[in-house]
Write a structure and sequence with these properties.
Elements: E1 3-6, H1 9-17, E2 25-33, E3 37-41, H2 46-49, E4 61-62, H3 63-74, E5 82-89, H4 91-101, H5 110-113, E6 114-123, E7 128-136, H6 144-159, E8 164-166
Length: 167
């Protein structure tokens, strides 16, 4: 797990809220504090989709499906007093990345125990921080996947033009 200090809020928010930059992610939760506080639980409500034949592919909503809602809550002349987004890399993207960076993963091991690779984006009114984290189904003493995710997340942010420093 690493903590990343974002130097320019705009450099992160523009790709997050517009375009397809973060479409490889699912939204676990969002909290946006403007004139009032809005909370979004990204867990799919399966009964809502019963009988429609349109049950989403994932247990969490895709970022692309909630991106505009979040954008509409944030846009305006005043900056929110705070916000928090918890995003999970889509499972197939996580597996693809890990297979490329850590070929031994194909043989099972820690990769089979992985639950999620997570980006937590937090703005407290003055500064923006992104933290990486890894969620497992059980305790895993090997930190190789965590380190791979830390490197991949910083590489991703850098390639997208986000200005940051690792804290």
């Amino acid at each position: 797990m690493i903590s990343i200090q974002i130097n320019s809020l705009r450099s992160l928010m523009t790709p997050l809220l517009t375009g397809d930059t973060f479409y490889s992610f699912l939204l676990e939760k969002a909290r946006i504090c403007v004139g009032c506080t809005f909370e979004i639980d990204g867990h799919v409500n399966a009964p809502f989709y019963e009988g429609s034949g349109n049950l989403p592919e994932y247990d969490l909503q895709e970022w692309k499906d909630l991106q505009n809602t979040c954008y509409q809550l944030i846009k305006g002349k005043q900056t929110p007093t705070s916000f928090n987004f918890t995003l999970h890399l889509k499972p197939e993207k996580a597996h693809e990345m890990l297979e490329k960076e850590y070929p031994e993963i194909a043989d099972g091991g820690a990769g089979e125990l992985l639950r999620a690779l997570i980006l937590n984006i937090y703005y407290d009114g003055t500064r923006t921080t992104v933290t990486t984290s890894t969620s497992y189904k059980t305790f895993v003493p090997d930190k190789t996947i965590d380190q791979i995710w830390d490197r991949a997340a910083t590489r991703f942010l850098g390639l997208k033009g986000v200005s940051f420093e690792i804290m």
